[in-house]
Amino acid sequence: MARSSQTDAAVLGGLSVQPMSGYALREAIRDVLGHFWSESFGQIYPTLTALEREGFVERSEGDRAGSSTFHITPAGRRRLRELLSQPIQGVPPRNGLLLRLFFGRTLGAEACRELLRDARADAERKLAELDRLLAENAAETGPDAPFMRMTILAGRRSAEAGVAWADECLNLLEELS
């Protein structure tokens, strides 16, 4: 799926949960999907405009001047299903931490230790945030709740693995000393 199609899927998917303003959609993508998906905020409004032009979303004017709420249309739901049915397109990984560790001999063991301590702390912060999301999700009863829980659990497992990996690497650096 091309990058623009993935943006379409994220926007249509967000609106399939509930109608939202462009601002609320932007916040939902950041706050709700953010543990596994990022989207350029500069793409959301042009995507909403294009999806409206194609008949996949409809706009209703809000109470405030300039505020609009977007609703997914039946055609938009069909398009979302079509987009989500396409094969997943992998992206080449770019991990600055691993790049630095790979060349760790040049960077130095102490700098690598610091990077790993920071990575471990980040993973622990992610675990705490994901635990908070799991607690919120446990109170949800809507039809999307089990599917949202799956993504939270995936993020949690990745964060747990990040903590374990950082510990293992820190131990490896200690053995080198």
UniProtKB/TrEMBL annotation:
TM region positions: none
UniProt-listed Pfam families: PadR, Vir_act_alpha_C
Coiled coil: 109-140
Transcription regulator PadR N-terminal domain residues: 11-82
SUPFAM superfamilies (UniProt xref): Winged helix' DNA-binding domain
Coiled coil recorded as keyword: yes
Domain Transcription regulator PadR C-terminal: 94-174
Keywords: Coiled coil
Name of protein: PadR family transcriptional regulator
Organism this protein belongs to: Dactylosporangium sucinum
